[in-house]
Protein 1
Amino acid sequence: MSGADASDAEVLALLRREPERVGVLYDRYARRLLTSALAAAVVIIGASAAASGWLIGAPAPPSVKADFGTYAPQLGFHPDPGSAVLVAQDGSDQLYATTNSEGSYCLVASTPWKQPGSNSDGGTCISKEIAETPIVAGFVAGTENVQVFAGRVSVSGAASISFPLPDGSTRTVPLGTSGFFLTSINGKACQSSDWSPQIAALSSDGTVVAASTITLERVEGDGGACVLPGVHS
């Protein structure tokens, strides 16, 4: 039996028989305890890193977690409400995201007129196939005169997105955490028929690192119904 393999009781018994070995035994025992503590710390740190994954942000409030919890599983997704975090913000508008069992993510928007908890809708879940494309964007909330668009850039080095608005001006939006973005646009939707802007992902120095043309508004049918697609590529 070596000091490194001894149990606490065995160490005490050995010390009673051979007190002159206290220095050696103490050194071995202390090193054994330190090794065990370090191993436990590695396990804890590893578990923490695995739990955080790629989705980071400030924890979502209970109302948002409750909203994700109302998502109907019949729609094909199973959000994890407990992992919900804040990923983007534009003034008083906020975007929350969480992972799901299908390997992608789900989104909930919070605005002054659409508060999670008071009018929960379960959020919007994105398929894994769409989530893996470089840029996704789409409608997440809106009123007659305001449209809120959100999405994500999954390209390394992206710091913002830039795209033309229906009125001809250009909007640049910084990315929040984990590549997500959120922006609200004033004005009625579908005023210029279909709206399919090219969305460019920019690095911190303004270099285009990815670009996608995505239809955010479209007019359908003889009656000119205005359709605002969800988040897609």
Note: DSSP finds four helices and 14 strands in the chain.
Protein 2
Amino acid sequence: MAPKVLAAVITLLINISAGVVVFFAMLLGMNGFSESDANYGIVAYIILAVAVSITMALLAAVGVHLLMKRNFRPVSAAVISIVVFATFGSVLKVVCSVVGILVADFVRVNF
């Protein structure tokens, strides 16, 4: 049980850190948008980023469980799961930032 919880918590912390870095990069990318248009993109990013972080943490715990069923040692299973789901979550955060910018652009053009 401890490796699952540890993997979930570490993955969550890594994803939150990646989310903050990507958020500030997204703010730089949204330079030139008015504040009212950019707010929609920021809210969309925050909602998606929180969903990705929670999902990756849960999947990391499930990954540890599945790897331990295949006779991996708990530490090895936790490390593999953390690396895989932290990386995948970080890539998804970049995708979420692009979606946030597209939402802000959609609002700027259509409303």
Note: The chain has one domain: 2-110.
Protein 3
Amino acid sequence: MEWVDYNYEAYLSLKQIDEIEDTKGAFQESDKKYKRLLDNSKYIEDEHNRILAILEESLKKINSYEKLILEAQQEKNSNRSLSKFDSDINKLFEKVRYFEGNQIAEEIDQQYY
């Protein structure tokens, strides 16, 4: 009877070892997945930060260009001779637009309209 009891205990121990090995294998697989996800997350975070830096730099440039455009627009609006010249040019193009068949007028029209 002791021999049967000993073999039964040995069987339970071996079964427990197999279960521990299975759990260990599953844990190792989960650990690999977690490490891959962590690596991917780090890559995504780095790319996100790189894109944000590019966007911030672009925004600075856009703000700088906007300021220059506003300054140029104010300068143009404050200079009456430029405003009159601009108005005269627009009137001229309005007249030229209707000169159908005139090759030079059509080329100008294509360039500006």
Note: Residues 80-113 form one domain.
Protein 4
Amino acid sequence: MSRKTFLILLSFLIVPGIGLLDQLSGDDLSLIVLYLVPIILASWQGGRLWGLLVAALAIASWSVSNLALPIHVDLDPSFQHTWDLIEKLIFFALAALSASRMKSYVEAERRKGLVDFATGLPNRRAFVADLAARAGKGPFEVGFIELDGLENLYLERGEAFVEALFKTTAGLCRAVLPTYRFGDERLAFIAAGMSGPAAAASMDRLAERIERHLLEAGAPNLRLKVGVARCPDSEAPSYPSIRKFLEGSMIYLRGKPGNRIETFDFAKV
């Protein structure tokens, strides 16, 4: 018998005993907190269904004991008060812990919804949210990064090779820029203060690292295309307008030979 099966079975076996003890303790002393032990144990080991089954057994055990053994016990008031205090402390602590755990689960799921699992990068939803959050925070740059020629590489080397190549490229970009996975073959980034000679030098170094990686990986025919939109500080562009603008920039760059990193002043189109 596995440990999981043993603990679930144990949860069922101890419930009738708790029901009998609860009845023998009298009407003035509630032992409801003791029922939580097998219910939580069964839920933890077997899931919601087993927890509900043990809870149903607990209700049945209490009902049968209450009907079969109508017992009245006079308790010392100080003992009863102490027990009631302990019981409430346990319930209130469980309520606080459950709410905290539930919030952590919700937050974890929300974060998962903003992450691309293949690369570990923030995804398009995160990109859209962060783009909107840039409003009123000064000038910034937003851009698309593509490896031109991936379509042919899919046919030549297969999907697994291309995914590994793209993942490594994403890691190189992430080390330099706040990078997002925007699509199957496209990365995006949002950065502040990237203009000027220092920014250009940084982008050139990134292009050199990616080109070296492509050569080492056996994909020398791929070319890096980076279109950067320089946005003013007056407003953050809407997602549809910046996407349309950058899509046009990437079409323009794909028509040029070699690696290309070009910056354009954003204008609504």
Note: The radius of gyration is 31 Å.
